[in-house]
Amino acid sequence: MNAPDYEYLRKLLKERSGLDLSADKQYLIESRLLPLARKAGLSGIPELVQKLQGGSSALITSVVEAMTTNETFFFRDKVPFDHFRDTIMPEVLKARAGRRSVRIWCAAGSTGQEPYSLAMTLKEMSAALSGWRVEIIATDLSQEVLEKAKAGVYSQFEVQRGLPIQMLMKYFKQTGETWQVNPELRAMIQHRQLNLLQDFSHLGTFDVIFCRNVLIYFDQETKINIFNRLARQIEPDGFLVLGAAETVVGLTDTFKPIADRRGLYKPNDARAVAANAAAAPRMAAMAGR
Prior knowledge:
Layout: H1 3-17, H2 26-39, H3 45-53, H4 57-67, H5 79-95, E1 101-106, H6 113-123, E2 133-140, H7 143-151, E3 153-155, H8 156-159, H9 165-171, E4 172-175, E5 178-181, H10 183-186, E6 189-193, E7 206-211, H11 220-231, E8 234-242, E9 255-257, E10 264-267, H12 270-288
Parallel strand pairs: 1-2, 1-7, 2-6, 7-8
Antiparallel strand pairs: 3-5, 4-5, 8-10, 9-10
């Protein structure tokens, strides 16, 4: 792969998905896109680039999906789900007692393990949530992974990664060598295709937003843009959950970390949120370029 082809692909991926590849990641593009090129009957990366430059929207989508990392597993990193059960939900139950409803958004929900982990956690709290309306929205850039998430079918290897055996037996049905999430749990989640670089205001506001292990692939300007827009989609007393390698510190004051709760954040006071929200249109225009 020559330098101009690599630069074209870097720019394409950043514009379409936010993925910010450094100058030394040619090997990653070759390893993921060469099989795609061959599957499409192309000789290699140079011919793939020619097709992309010709404006093949289907091929562009395939390239973006091939380059998007979808590494995930049930109850990944464990700590965020402990926080969800022990810190977030007790506060939400108290604060929303009047309306008896809660809305949760899993941004970058991938193949479904994260939203299903949240759904199982909520099911284990069913006595406290009796009579409540619970809504979980799971979004991802890739339609392919969303289809897998909707089906809720996982291999033996996938269910062995982080899923407690008692929950496997309680919430899954085995069919041959695969396991499927039971219908009641699948019905708790709405799966929607969404690009975080684009407007997501139509989703409405949420009490809890999980946006884990996706912002690490974006440059600083894109992260700031997304944080500022997330601040407008979360209730003033809501919770934002980030991945272990992600933080708002040094990027935005729309959210503040919660002491002794790694990866857990709350919206800052209204003045900080308003100040950052005022900059959002400019940041959105930058992200759209």
